[in-house]
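Per your request, structure below.
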């Protein structure tokens, strides 16, 4: 594309034979130079190659090149070099075609929708399988590459079939990686879970999803670890050399693990975001289910009807999940670390507002909720004092 003298762009239409020659050269480069590790092709050249291939995909998929994603997945399984290029190409597809976070013209938006629809029909299932297989393959030997794979996966979760990632293979892998020794993998797995939990769906489906993820108990354990991370840092600063020398082996290991968490602020922030997202999504789903129950009551249907019973069961499950997640949020909030506390404040404020609304309706709160309401009052007072101090 070039600019005319008037500043308007025009495109040069190449002959079909020249198009094929350029396409063949790019694929030869991909297969020849991206499989060699010594010397490795520089990352910026790999990115440019990925963008050039995606420029062809924009023109040829699916009409001319219907098997592009299937061929790409097959190539990714042949070695780490092409696995890396698989990720770069999927990132380029998202950035250059699909993502509507980037301002696009009407024609580009139409192309984005067409490509997504085509991928849903053929390709995205294989791509999701590659995300899982490559992460599993490289999580120990090349954790940075495995994290790179999950990073591309997180870009697609919001529009693909949720069952491609929220299944009995992928979710246990993500849960395992959240406790992995490599921090970049832990962070990448957390990002994917955040996208899974944030995906828009009906409230009952969302409640069932969170329950099936089986991460609520893990969030409670994680909250305790976050508090331990803060405590380990303070204890290390206050303890003398003799106290450190006399620490037990188990205590030393626990402190080391907590300190490792504390030292990675980005990871702590992601954990807090996941916790806040889980709690916020469950509370929102609960509100919507409660509105359904109220509608049934107004219509005179009652909870004995099948739909009413389903809504009541969903509300009970959501209340149980929300209680556990709220405990985890409040525990993590007490860590004293801004990196952890700040992402949790919006949920705490919304949760306290919900409790106040329930009290105004005359609903009796459980003892735990009454305590949470008192914590909310204290938090509001603390934030008001802080704002006043900043103003002065």
């Amino acid at each position: 594309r070039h600019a005319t003298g008037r500043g308007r762009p025009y495109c040069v239409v190449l002959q079909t034979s020249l198009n094929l020659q350029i396409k063949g050269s790019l694929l030869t480069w991909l297969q020849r130079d991206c499989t060699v590790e010594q010397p490795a092709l520089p990352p910026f050249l790999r990115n440019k190659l990925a963008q050039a291939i995606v420029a062809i995909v924009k023109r040829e998929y699916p009409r001319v090149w219907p098997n592009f994603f299937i061929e790409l997945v097959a190539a990714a399984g042949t070695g780490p070099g092409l696995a890396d290029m698989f990720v770069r190409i999927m990132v380029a597809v998202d950035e250059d075609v699909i993502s509507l976070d980037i301002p696009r013209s009407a024609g580009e938006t139409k192309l984005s929708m067409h490509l997504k629809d085509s991928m849903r029909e053929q390709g995205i299932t294989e791509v999701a399988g590659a995300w899982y297989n490559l992460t599993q393959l490289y999580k120990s030997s090349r954790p940075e590459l495995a994290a790179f794979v999950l990073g591309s996966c997180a870009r697609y979760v919001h529009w693909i079939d949720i069952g491609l990632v929220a299944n009995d293979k992928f979710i246990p892998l993500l849960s395992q990686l959240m406790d992995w020794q490599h921090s970049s993998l832990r962070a990448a797995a957390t990002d994917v879970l955040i996208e899974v939990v944030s995906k828009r769906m009906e409230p009952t489906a969302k409640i069932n999803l969170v329950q099936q993820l089986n991460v609520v108990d893990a969030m409670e354990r994680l909250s305790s670890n976050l508090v331990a991370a803060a405590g380990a840092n303070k204890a290390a600063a206050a303890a003398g050399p003799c106290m450190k020398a006399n620490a037990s082996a188990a205590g030393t290991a626990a402190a080391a693990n907590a300190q490792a968490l504390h030292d990675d602020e980005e990871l702590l922030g992601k954990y807090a975001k996941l916790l806040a997202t889980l709690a916020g999504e469950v509370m929102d789903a609960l509100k919507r289910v409660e509105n359904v129950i109220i509608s049934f009551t107004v219509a005179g249907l009652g909870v004995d009807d099948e739909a009413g019973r389903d809504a009541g069961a969903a509300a009970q499950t959501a209340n149980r999940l929300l209680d556990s997640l709220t405990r985890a949020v409040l525990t993590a909030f007490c860590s004293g670390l801004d990196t952890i506390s700040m992402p949790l404040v919006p949920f705490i404020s919304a949760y306290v507002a919900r409790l106040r609304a329930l009290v105004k309706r005359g609903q009796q709160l459980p003892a735990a909720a009454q305590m949470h309401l008192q914590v909310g009052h204290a938090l509001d007072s603390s934030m008001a004092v802080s704002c006043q101090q900043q103003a002065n």
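The first helix runs from residue 16 to 33.

Regards,
D.
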